[in-house]
Design a protein that fits this description.
Elements lengths: L12 H9 L13 E9 L4 E8 L5 E8 L3 E6 L5 E9 L4 E5 L2 E3 L7 H13 L1 E13 L8 E12 L15 E6 H9 L6 H15 L7 E2 L12
Parallel strand pairs: 4-9
Antiparallel strand pairs: 1-2, 2-3, 4-7, 5-6, 5-10, 8-9, 8-11
Helix pairs in contact: 3-4
Organism: Streptomyces avermitilis (strain ATCC 31267 / DSM 46492 / JCM 5070 / NBRC 14893 / NCIMB 12804 / NRRL 8165 / MA-4680)
Protein name: ADP-ribose pyrophosphatase
GO cellular component, one term: cytosol
Length: about 230
Amino acid sequence: MPGCVSFGTRAPAFVRAWEEQGDMTIKDTPEEWEVRATETPFKGNKTSVRTDDVVMPDGSVARRDYQVHPGSVAVVAVDDEGRVLVIRQYRHPVRHKLWEIPAGLLDIPGENPLHAAQRELYEEAHVKAEDWRVLVDLYTTPGGCDEAVRIFLARDLSEAEGRRFEVEDEEADMELSRVPVDELLRGVLAGDLHNNCLVTGVLSLIAAQNGEGLDALRPADAPWPARPFEA
């Protein structure tokens, strides 16, 4: 059948193992392999680079370099007209101005991610939201960085009170807009939009809308094992 993968008369071991499990739940599970040695060849203001000597399943030792990251939050903020609040910002490593959703670092170890998300929405868009839910959790680049991101859904938006946050550096050139979800989806599928949080957030928003609905999403204070926090 066109589009189907055929393994011939005997399926590979991983397929047979899966079939033997029956209705197995697909879920990532924590696991930590032995580290024989570790060092930090670079330490920056917010992130660092770590080198670990990791014991492989066959007993050999492999060296793995990766970025150590405090974690991040991002916000898919949807207004009453179904538009998503997006910002356009220069990102020097990729030499592009990217359309993104409001996002920022977890600056304080153990910081409540909801509080961080509310802060970012205020600072980058001068907007507040009354309804918050967890949209999706992800590791951005697990092969080379331990960054974990929690993306929130924010609804019932209104203009924030008080002074606007004073921006600097790349943020001084930042643009702000509200774009219909369908237009963002078109841009994602056309390859015109590339920011990982925007892409993941938009696709997750549409999936949730077409699934059990946005009110079925996890509460804003749902546990986050990747970055534990106090309520």
